[in-house]
Amino acid sequence: MSPVPTLPGVTSKMVDTPRIKTHVLFSGPENGTPVLFLHGNASSATFWEEIMLALPAGFRGIAPDLRGYGDTEDKLVDATRGAADWIDDILSLMDVLKIEKAHVAGHSMGGTLVMNLVAAAPARVLSGTVVNPGSPYGFGGSKGLDGQPCYDDFAGSGGGIVNPDFPKLIAAGDRSSDNPQASPRVVMNSFYFKQPFSSAREEDLLSSLLTEKVGPDKYPGDFVPSANWPNVAPGSLGPINAISPKHVGDSVKKFILASPKPPILWVRGDADLIVSDNSFFDFGTLGKLGYVPGWPGEEIYPPQPMVSQTRHVLEQYGPFEEVVIAETGHSPFIEKPAEFLAAFLKVLK
Fold first, then answer.
1. How many CB atoms lie within 10 A of CB 152?
2. Which of 28, 81, 103, 198 could hold 60 in an S-S bridge, CB 3.0 to 4.6 Å?
3. Residue 344, Ramachandran bin (φ over 0: left; ψ between -120 and 50: alpha; else beta)
4. Is 122 helix (H, G, I), strand (E, B) or coil?
5. What are phi and psi of 104, to 5 degrees?
6. Residue 3 pLDDT class (50, 70, 90 cuts)
7. What whole-number distance in Å separates Cα of residue 149 and Cα of residue 244?
């Protein structure tokens, strides 16, 4: 059904829910313990297939394409709700599939969604695994361990921080390596993985990346001019605005106070350039390095300490384990699946 080929043992179905028609990949027995896999930005459920197939007997892998991605029905993300559109979609899917509780694993933006799901419905989560998740305080525009905004309008986050050539090339289905800054293939190989890693499924993963739904109200979303550096502030539509600190709301507080508290496994690559305390996708880092002129300095707009913010929140939450996988970038579950599975399967058991 999906234009992206699936591995043998993975089935692809459209599932009608009251909120959205959702494209879902499945593995394992229908009566198995459910393990829900949430993908990140500029990817789809395809990224999780190898791990789905490696689940032990008695587990069922379930990986939806999130709203705005893959073959799921094309409906807008209302960013003013933060992650709530996605969380409501996921809970609706669980209801239709008659899943009361599931283990949940999420990569990158999907890891942020795992924490939001625990905040919204902790009793439905058996365990949460977050792989190189974005900061719970949102991506860009904040500083300090407690996620204080650099500016009142959250400048430096949202739809305006994306290189405009990248979504244009996604929309064009570009499979070349012609643009060293924005070709989807180059971005994937340079930033999703620690070079020189290259996936045997590079073409399928690239096809997955290219399924993201693009437009000013989709990806990257809208933005507004700002008097504050770097002169763009978040808008109200699309996934990158939804993960702006402007729209996080009280999700961090709800996560910390969640009851019950499912155990959290936090896995990250030691060489991640996307989510780190010096992210190459963060204007604080780019300004400090001189790549973006006009940087107002460390006190006003330091690099966002994304990893340190996540640790600070998890320490307040309670039961968590941090596992760092050496010589991997943003996607250690693809780069070193055996090492990822060693930690992940312990949590499932």
1. 10
2. 28
3. alpha
4. helix
5. -130, 130
6. confident
7. 10
